[in-house]
Amino acid sequence: MTRTLAALLIAAGAAACSQPSPWPDAIVVGVTSSPTTLDPGVGVDEASQKIGQLLFSSLVKIDGTLRVVPDLATRFETTDWQTFTATIPAGVRFHDGREMTSADVAYTFRRFLDPAFTSARKGAYRDLAAVDIVDPYTVAFRLKAPSASFPVNLVMGIVPAGTGAEAGRQPIGSGPYRMAEFVPDDHVTLLPFADHYRGAPRNAGLVLKVVPDETMRGLELRKGSVDIVVNDLAPDLVHGLQEEGRLQVVTAPGTDYAYIGLNLRDPVLADRRVRQAIAYAVDRDAIVNYLRRGFAAPATTIVPPMSWAAAADVPAFPHDPARAMALLDEAGFRDPDGAGPAPRLHLSLKTSTNEAYRLQAAVLQQQLSQVGIALELRSYELATLFADVTRGNVQLYTLQFVGVTDPDMLRRAFETTQVPPSGFNRGHYSNPEVDRLIAAATIALDEAERGRLYGEAQRLIAADVPLVSLWVKTNVAVAQANLTGLSLSPTADFTFLAGVARIR
């Protein structure tokens, strides 16, 4: 954080810290935007999903090793990866007092089989053939073909049978909080649900306060009108607040993966030696330590390091300019003037207009120049950048994969058929052996065998460099010093907020 910004934070905080909070008993959470809808089957934006975690109960959840494990379900099992059976406990109540049964669970997921139901999430359930009611508290999910990756799609809130469009603004769930007030673009107020099956939250409620501007979120924390912000502050801002010492900063390893994408249909980047040279030219440690202020870790693979499927021996590309230049020599891009200024080759990199990513791009430009690659930088609004990447109108670009939890992301990002619009293979990477390994892992019944197959795929992918791994995010919560119960998961979900309490 610049000294000017730090001074603004201190000055504004000193001027305003005496202002009373309009919600004196609730925990105020600063968020960047309003939810688009509070129907968990429809909302795909971050705000909708995180608030949904507080309003609804889910059959399963993602644990600290990114495995899918029972949550609401007392039993969740399969014998063939094609039929999954889940049992819920008796006595779970919705916010309107009605008991949840298997009919509600079936309705929640049968909506995705209804042609009239509109949701951007429907594609994730294309392999779902049917949802059968076994008994009042047991359902069976039948797939069209075996899929060990399907259970992650059951991490979603259960709605009452018959739920319609009204759930977008007036949701009824069975989570630890119930809806009290929704003022779009301003705030969402949630009150404790006293009859929650695991007990009421430890606090008097939550106010999700919309503060779109990042600097203002820092100011609101500083003056005490916001109690906590999770993952919505720039590293420089977090560092400045941490140095000031009045707020607590809680961290945990995260899953967001930043990378340089490469268009393998480009004649220069089609040469693996050039891609490897770029990887050796990048100094990840410098980016992590200085740009990210240590709130990240160098990445080697899209699979997060805490994942049960992460391979420990993935080929890495440490910062090695000499090796990068040797590879460029082998690829035919020799230095035209020795120690002179002429570059070996010219490439362009597209990034977003976000200041943090523009700065990162400038650092990459400087690092690649040291090995003779002249990098032209172009910044675009995110929608334009995505459109260019999807169409292949790029050489290099920087983006993030957000919330990577299941190793099936290897299939979506690298399998030959998963080019846009089918998947995320935006660089048109193709390796038949990688395709074979991923397909085998998808249907392997033994987790150890799945892990072995995914590990082999990660090693091959890393060596081919269809993406240059940069860093994996560290989750960060900045909160008032009088809050307890702060504990971040790898996905930085909001469920921990039910256990947050204020020390008086």
Structural summary, described in words:
This protein is of the alpha+beta class and 504 residues long. It is built from 13 helices and 19 strands. A hairpin with a 3-residue loop joins strand 8 and strand 9. Helix 1 packs across helix 4 and helix 12 runs antiparallel to helix 13. The longest helix is centred in the C-terminal third of the chain and has 18 residues. The protein is globular.
Shape descriptor reads: globular
Portion in helices: 25-40%
**Structure class:** alpha+beta
Largest sheet: 11 strands, mixed
Structure, briefly:
The chain is an alpha+beta fold.
Task: Spell out the key features of this protein.
504 residues; alpha+beta; 13 helices; 28% helix; globular; disordered N terminus
How is this fold's topology laid out?
Blueprint: H1 3-16, E1 27-31, H2 46-55, E2 60-62, E3 68-70, E4 75-78, E5 83-87, H3 102-110, E6 128-135, E7 138-143, E8 177-183, E9 187-192, E10 206-210, H4 214-223, E11 228-230, H5 235-244, E12 247-262, H6 272-281, H7 284-291, E13 296-298, H8 321-330, E14 345-352, H9 355-369, E15 373-380, H10 382-391, E16 396-401, H11 409-414, H12 432-443, H13 447-464, E17 467-480, E18 483-484, E19 501-502
Parallel strand pairs: 1-10, 1-11, 14-15, 14-16
Antiparallel strand pairs: 2-3, 4-5, 5-7, 6-7, 8-9, 9-10, 11-17, 12-16, 12-17, 13-17, 18-19
